[in-house]
Amino acid sequence: MMHVTEREATQTIDVSDACLMVDHLFRSRAGQMVAYLTRLLGPEHLDLAEEVTQEALLKALQHWPYSGIPQNPAGWLFRVARNAALDAVRHRTLAGEKSTELAVEHFRNADASSANDELEDQLRDDELRMVLMCCHPTLPQDARVALSLKTVGGFSVREIARAFLADEATIAQRLVRAKRQIRESRIRFELPAGEELVARMDSALEVVYLMFNEGYAAQSGEDLVRQDLCGEALRLGRLLATSSVGTPQAHALVALMAFQAARLPARVDAAGELVLLENQDRGEWDARLIALGFDHFTQCAEGTELTSYHVQAAIAATHARAQEGRATDWKLILELYDQLIELSPSPVVELNRAVVVAKVHGPEAALAALRPLEGNRSLRNYYLLPAVQGQLLLEIGDKPGASESFRQALERPCSEPEQRFLQRKLAECSRM
Amino acid sequence: MAKYMLLLYDNRANWTDISPDEMQKAIQKYKAWGDKLKKLGIYVSSHKLADDAGKVLRGRGPARVTDGPYSETKEVLGGYFMIEAPTYDDAVGHSRDCPHLEYGGTIELRQIDPMVGSA
């Protein structure tokens, strides 16, 4: 019976991996294995689930160089991890540990229930529960992000630390605390319903968005793991959006991320210099991601609720629709920014809106729109405010004013390509 | 063509705190190296040795059987590759780019002694 089970499990997984080793296979399968085992073992044994998963991957590392990569790598990994987990709980049960008796029972039932070809669905469901567990609103937000990356994303502590430019010990401690809190608050590994589901989903989308933005902020030449954050955020976003509890809001977020990720390759030119959105070579935008963006964008319109993700996605979609920078429908984008300010007002949104005002009503109007932001404390260290002002002053021919603004911008923190961009602008001011 | 045995010793400490992504990359490197040997037509065989089944037999008369040397030493013999090469130096050349070295392992390279008197 058990052999049949395993063979069938193997076949279902085989479809996606074939015999190739796809990019980040270990990372994403590690997340699935931890989720699968956590369901069987219970969230209080999350550590054990992670441990045996790591063990299974290490076994692969020790065997495959000699034996070659098996026909079905994921099936191999699952089998090894599952057996290691079962050994561990049997051992603990023999040693008198109460909490593991139930786990042994779960493993036995899992044998029977996974004998159908719905295993891949089950795994997706496990992953979904895992994300929602990691994004429990009682956990601090930075812990939610770290825990999601660790358990669902298959990132190591070191990778998370590198991705967030943080200290390894800090991340490790954050994870230990979060897991303790899961145990102590008896957070369950099941799909919440009603209000609770709405709150968890909101939190999960927030985590995904944060992850994406952190990766999106990564500069070229920086650690690749930072850019991997965008990929993982997109994967998690799609998992949430296409799940049984997916919402139009989740689709909106995926659309937004897909459109933005599509532009990543065009963000810097061959020399590593910054290229502004309107000057980007649209041929370099990732067509597959644009298509994915529109696919989810269509689905996000199905609800009645209009969220800030919807409006941001609509803005990104409007850019994506323009065949070239000049063809951008700025009037529509301005209307969308007005909506966005109503939904979630922030000085950064105001600043972005002002750039669009310049396109529609000219630089004078935009400068007027920016004036109220000048004393804003949250923009004090934000180089983009003076940078945008400088650009607008340049457009109306006020070169001394523009050069003063670019100088101010250069005094604020920004990346090297951004600095070089501002230097070029400054040089432009002194010409003629 | 003589046969050569590459004995791959691992240092387990090198594999602590390694991420899934890094493990996958390591496996892909080993695979690329193994594929290269096969493409050159010099690959003979390779096997991983079992981790915990090793014992050492010693002594004249009734042999004393003890646990393998593994537990005490940091480096353990993880497995071997057998390849064919015209000279020892060629075998060294083929071993040099084995990712095992990059990951802090050691390779002991031994020639299978051709039978005395054979051509």
Report on the architecture of this protein:
The complex is a heterodimer of chains A (432) and B (119). Chain A is an all-alpha fold and 432 residues long. Among the domains of chain A are: 1-117, no CATH class; 348-432, Serine Threonine Protein Phosphatase 5, Tetratricopeptide repeat (Alpha Horseshoe), CATH 1.25.40.10. Chain A has helices spanning 2-17, 25-41, 46-67, 73-94, 99-113, 119-134, 141-152, 157-163, 168-184, 194-216, 224-241, 248-263, 287-300, 308-321, 330-343, 347-361, 363-370, 384-395, 399-411, 416-430. In chain A, helix 4 packs antiparallel against helix 5 (99-113). The longest helix of chain A has 23 residues, at 194-216. Chain A is elongated. Residues 1-19 of chain A have low confidence and may be disordered. Chain B has 119 residues and is an alpha+beta fold. Chain B has a single domain, classed as Dimeric alpha+beta barrel (Alpha-Beta Plaits), CATH 3.30.70.1060. In chain B, 28% of the residues lie in helices and 34% in strands. Chain B is built from 3 helices and 6 strands. Chain B has a 4-stranded antiparallel beta sheet. In chain B, strand 3 and strand 4 (64-67) form a beta hairpin. The radius of gyration of chain B is 17 Å and the shape is flat. At the A-B interface, helix 2, helix 3 and helix 8 of A face helix 1, strand 2 and strand 5 of B.
